[in-house]
Amino acid sequence: MTDANNILALLQRPLEPTFMPKDDGKTVIDLPDEFLTDRYRQIGADLQSRFSNDAEQRIPVRSVAMPDLSFANGIDRRGAFSLFAPKHRDAAAALINLFLKQPDFASLMSVATYCRDRLNPVLFQYSLAVAVQHREDTKDVNIPSIVSLFPDQFVDPAVFPKLREEGAAVQQENRMVIDIPPNYTASDREDEQRMAYFREDIGVNMHHWHWHLVYPGDGPDQVVRKDRRGELFFYMHSQLIARYNADRFCAKLKKVRNLTNYREPIVEGYYPKMIRSSNNRSYPARAANTTLQDVDRVDNGTTVSVNDLERWRDRIHEAIDQGFVLDKSGNRIMLDEQRGIDILGDVVEASSLTPNAQLYGSLHNMGHNVIAYVHDPDYRYLEDYGVMGDVTTAMRDPIFYRWHGMIDGIFRRHKELLTPYTAEQLGNPGVSVNSVGVQLSRPNTPANVLLTYWQRSQVDLAAGLDFGPKGNVFASFTHLQHAPFSFRVEVNNESGAVRKGTLRIWLAPKSDERGTALTFREQRRYFIEMDTSTVTLNPGMNTIVRRSDQSSVTIPYERTFRAIGTKSAPTDKDALAQFRFCGCGWPQHMLVPKGSPEGVQFDLFAMVTDFEQDSVAQELDPNAPCNDAHSFCGLRDKKYPDRPAMGYPFDRRTADTVATLADFVTPNSNMKTATVLVKFNNTVIART
C-alpha cells in the first residue's frame, strides 16, 4: 500500500521545483516528463538523473489526465495569497474540492504533484493541508508546522542571510544556532510594544493559522459544515481577546478599545519588518493615524467600501435586536439560546454557511481586507496586503485585537439578550466544591503562586529555506513560559453513589491596569478557560489533581513545532499515538498570563457540573488523536464534546443583584474560588 506520508514531500521547500530532493536529499519524487513545467521539460532527463543519485527513497508518481487549473488564473505563483480575498478563497475551495474528489491516494499524489509547480505555493499548501485532514486515506498524516514551511511569515528576515551562510559554509555537526531577536518591530517608546511578546509569539500565530485550517470558511460542504462551527469561531476568538486583555492589565495597559467607529483614524501604527519569500517584497507598514478607505483592488478583484462594513454591521445588530436573521427566501431563522450564537458565527465571519450573504455581507473577512489594504486601497502603488490580510500574520498587529474586540462585541450583544442562567442550570445537587488551588511542581513552593519567565527554544527552519542548504538549520527564539503546576480541587460527593462530573477551571484578573477592582459585569468578559475535564466522583471527599500540561485548551511545544518530512513520524506505537495530532490548540507556553515581578492577583474559579447533563451522545475513544485541545478545536470527525454553551457559565448576564464574583459563587455549592498570584521573573532559561 502506498505510504500516505509521501504526500509530505510536496510540502517541503514550497518554492523549489518538485524534482529537487526532499528530506535533506534523501527523497526524490519521480516525475513523469509531462509534469515538468515548460522551463524544465526540455532538460528533464538531465534533471532527474542529476538530483536523484544520492536518494535513499524514490516516490513514484503516475501519469494522470492533467486537471483544469483555470480557477487559479490571475493568482500569481510568486505573489501574495490571502484567504480574506474572495477570488483567492474561491480558488482555494476549488482546489480543495479537486484534491478531495480523487478516488485514491495515488491519484491524489499525482494530481497534487502536477499542481505544485503551477500554483501559488500558499494556495497549494493550504488547500492540500485541508484536503489531507479531511480524506479518509490521509487524515492520519501529520501536517507539519507552518513555521517550518514559511518561516518568512513568523521570523525576523534579518536572520535568513545568517541561516543560509551557516548552512552553506559550515558542516552539519559544527553549525551554530542563529538567534531571532525578540521585540524587533518597535522600540519601547511605543507603549503597545509591551504586548509584542504576545502578538508576535510564533506559537500564538501558528495556532490562529491551524484553527482556520481545521475550520475553513469556504470549500466543499463536507469540509466547512462542522458541529457548532460558528459558535467555535465566536468562542476561540473571544478567548483570544480575553487573554490579550488579561495580559494588557499585567503590562499596565488599558483594555482593548474596540474598533467600533470605522471613520476615525487608527492611532496604532504597525511596521512588521517581514519579507514574503515568494516575491521578496516586504509586508507593507501602516502609519499611525491612518484612516480606513474604500478598497477597489484590480489585482485580485477585492472590492468593498467602509459603508459596506457599516451597513452589514447595522443589519446584524438589527437581526440580534429582533431575535432572528432572514434567509435568502425571507424566512426567519430564530436566534435562540441553543443555535443563535452558532448561526451568528456563520453570519459574522462570514463562512459559506451564512444563510444570507447578500443581506448580511462578510463583515469579519472584508474588515480584514479594508485594514490590510489601507496603505494602497486601489493598487495605485502595486503593493500587496499588510499583515491583517493573512491568518498567519494578522495577530501580530495591534489592530487585530481592536477589530476582533468589535466582532466580539456583536456576539456579546446577542448573549446579553439571553435569560440569565437559573439556579437549576448552574447547580449540581449533591456535589460541593470545598476548595480549589494551584501548586507549582517544584517542592517547597508556596501554594496559589504561579511563576512565569522567558524561555529560549529552537526550531528547524531548513525545510522552508528554498534553494538553501542540506541538513538542519536551527534558529532560537525567546517566548513566555510558565513553571509547571497542578490544579488541586477538593470535591465532596454527598449523593452516596459514584457520579461523573465536568470540572471547569477558569482564571480572571481581579483588577484593571490601574489596580481598580473589576465589577463582576466587567470581569465576566475576562475569564479565560484553563481546563475542562470529565471526573469520576466517589461517595465522600475526592481530591482531583490536573497538571497544567493536561489542559483541554493547549497543545505541547513538541506538537506546535513538530518536525517535517516523510520520515519524521516516530515508529514506536505509543509515540506515534501521541504524535498523531492535528496541531490545533493554544500553545502550552502561553497558558498562563505573564503577571508582573511584584505579582498580579487573579481569581481562580472551579465548578463541577453534572456530566449527564453535559455529555453529548457519541462514541468517543479517549486515546484518539486530536482530543486533547478540544476547548478551542473540538474533536476531529465528532460533535463538540460539551453540551453547554461555549463560555458557560460566564457567557450570559446575571441578575442585577450579582455585583461580585462572590455573589455569583456563594449560592452554588458546586463552585469555589481562590486568589492566585502570578509572578514574572525577567530571566531567560534555555529549553533543555
Automatic annotation (TrEMBL):
Subcellular location: Secreted
Molecular function in Gene Ontology: catechol oxidase activity; metal ion binding; tyrosinase activity
InterPro entries the UniProt entry points to: Di-copper_centre_dom_sf, Hemocyanin/hexamerin, Hemocyanin/hexamerin_mid_dom, Hemocyanin_C, Hemocyanin_C_sf, Hemocyanin_N, Hemocyanin_N_sf, Ig_E-set
Cofactor(s) the protein needs: Cu(2+)
Alphabetic keyword roster: Copper, Disulfide bond, Metal-binding, Monooxygenase, Oxidoreductase, Secreted
Record's keyword annotation contains Electron transport: no
Residues of the Tyrosinase copper-binding domain: 397-408
Pfam families: Hemocyanin_C (PF03723), Hemocyanin_M (PF00372), Hemocyanin_N (PF03722)
Gene3D superfamilies linked to this entry: Di-copper center containing domain from catechol oxidase, Hemocyanin, C-terminal domain, Hemocyanin, N-terminal domain
GO biological process: melanin metabolic process
A single cellular component GO annotation: extracellular region
Keyword Secreted attached: yes
Domain of life of the organism encoding this protein: Eukaryota
Family: Belongs to the tyrosinase family.
Protein name: Tyrosinase copper-binding domain-containing protein
Source organism of this protein record: Anopheles melas
